[in-house]
Design brief:
single chain; alpha/beta; seven-stranded mixed β-sheet; five-stranded antiparallel β-sheet; about 30% helix; binds guanosine-5'-triphosphate; binds magnesium ion; binds sodium ion; Eukaryotic translation initiation factor 5B
Length: about 450
């Protein structure tokens, strides 16, 4: 397949922003689903992915008389958590995307993680559109279900329009304080220099057509080179999930290339590279969320961009946040195995060679890196002798217990966002209950409770 402007892949769009600004709800509104109400505490805790085919986007934007044909096959949208614990997931999401939507609550303006997201986007030079969400909360708002925003604004009273103007002006000023020029998209005369703001409501759908059309048109206009389809696989592991009766399945984002059933793949594992064969390639239905259980579509092959579930043997120790490689007919498996383990190696090299230190365990490579970085900082300075990704098993506890005899204050596992198996907990109790009290002083781990809330023993 030749790289050409006539063969574009779907752009990947990441939804970012402060907690509860309505990121998931906006996607629900476009999908016609109710994912948000099913979330524990109404909080997103995982990266999600949804594929929107071009025909759905065309349908949804018809009122804007966008007769021009869309050149991309669809849009892959990545939902990220806004809660403060998930900086690593936001970072992983923003690292995957071609374009982003930064969601701001019109009633709150810029908040802490709006600014954090903004900085991630600036750092990677990612184009983005601001969705100024919850316009329906303006006092006296007249609902105009799913209408383009300019039409909806015409139906509002003077009071609502003035209140809207006042808040928009304030938020534009807040962006300016962050060094960014922004403007309502329908007034923006310098697209490219000035970032677009699209007012939206995730509840009644005003502005959604505008957001979708702008996303697709903007990516087609500015990212053609980046969106040219290639056969070279670009694929990242998002989540590693044990599914009862089916072994372990990985959720991946396929950003470029084609995956086939039967492909030989290599992924990074905590115990070394994993070489296996794709047994099944699954996606949710279009307009459905990858992270929500449902019926899946089986595919013989899948073209980027897509959020995909891969079923294969031996994926138990796969590491989320690392790349997935396909072994081609001319490739040397050994080379690929080595490439796969690069990310892991850079983390491994931080382990203390003196043999005294704590053990650290996290759910993803990204969060493990963040933890190691923190422990290494001069203010904290705690050596690490063992790391692992995934649940804490008995063997992990045994490794930490060995330290009790050498340097008992290090007989500790700092575990972040991982489960502890009952057997592991039992073993830790037998060996460590007393020591727990001895070693859990704030002086040793000043910020422990803040960044490692799950378990320390
Ligand atoms: P996290 O993923 O946890 O960061 O939150 P989020 O940004 O995905 O926000 P979410 O979709 O969970 O919405 C948070 C709350 O705001 C929910 O109660 C929604 O019903 C409400 N909400 C979201 N969008 C709108 C909107 O446009 N208008 C109104 N009135 N409420 C909204
Ligand atoms: Mg959410
Ligand atoms: Na929420």
């Amino acid at each position: 397949l030749k790289r050409s402007e006539d063969n574009l892949r779907s752009p990947i769009c990441c939804i970012m922003g402060h907690v509860d600004t309505g990121k998931t709800k906006l996607l629900d509104c476009i999908r016609g689903t109710n994912v948000q109400e099913g979330e524990a505490g109404g909080i997103t805790q995982q990266i999600g992915a949804t594929y929107f085919p071009a025909e759905n986007i065309r349908e949804r934007t018809r009122e804007l008389k966008a007769d021009a044909k869309l050149r991309v096959p669809g849009l892959l949208v990545i939902d990220t958590p806004g809660h403060e614990s998930f900086t690593n997931l936001r970072s992983r999401g923003s690292g995957l995307c071609d374009i982003a939507v930064l969601v701001v609550d019109i009633m709150h303006g810029l908040e802490r993680h709006t600014i954090e997201s903004l900085n991630l986007l600036k750092m990677r030079n990612t184009e983005f559109i601001v969705a100024l969400n919850k316009v329906d909360r303006l006092f006296g708002w007249n609902t105009c279900k799913n209408k383009p925003i300019v039409k909806a604004m015409k139906k509002q009273s003077n009071d609502v329009r003035n209140e809207f103007k006042r808040r928009v002006t304030q938020i534009i000023t807040q962006f300016k304080e962050q060094g960014l020029n922004t403007e309502l998209y329908y007034k923006n005369k310098e697209m490219g220099e000035i970032f677009n703001i699209v007012p939206t409501s995730a509840i009644s759908g005003e502005g959604i057509p505008d957001l979708l059309l702008l996303l697709v048109k903007w990516t087609e206009k500015t990212l053609v080179e980046k969106l040219m389809f290639t056969n070279e696989i670009q694929c990242t592991v998002l989540e590693v999930k044990a599914i009862e009766g089916q072994g372990t399945i990985i959720d991946v984002v396929l950003a470029n290339g084609v995956l086939h059933e039967g492909d030989q793949i290599v992924v990074c594992g905590t115990q070394g590279p994993i070489v296996t064969t794709i047994r099944a390639l699954l996606t949710p239905h279009p307009m459905r969320e990858l992270r929500i259980k449902g019926s899946y579509l089986h595919h013989k092959e899948l073209k980027a961009a897509q959020g995909v579930k891969i079923n294969a043997q031996g994926l138990d120790h796969a590491v989320a946040g690392t790349g997935l490689y396909v072994v081609g007919p001319d490739d040397d498996v050994e080379d690929i195995k080595e490439a796969t383990m690069q990310d892991m190696k850079s983390v491994m090299s931080r382990i203390d060679k003196s043999g005294a230190g704590v053990c650290v365990q996290a759910s993803t490579l990204g969060s493990l890196e963040a933890l190691l970085e923190f422990l290494k900082s001069p203010a904290v300075n705690i050596p690490v002798i063992g790391i692992n990704i995934g649940p804490v098993h008995k063997s992990d506890v045994r490794r930490a217990c060995a330290m009790l005899e050498r340097k008992k204050e290090y007989g500790t596992i700092l575990a972040f966002d991982v489960k502890v198996t009952p057997e592991a907990r039992e073993l830790a109790k037998e060996n460590g209950e007393d020591k727990k009290r001895e070693t859990s002083g704030e002086a040793v781990f000043p910020c422990r409770l803040k960044i490692m809330p799950d378990c320390v023993f």
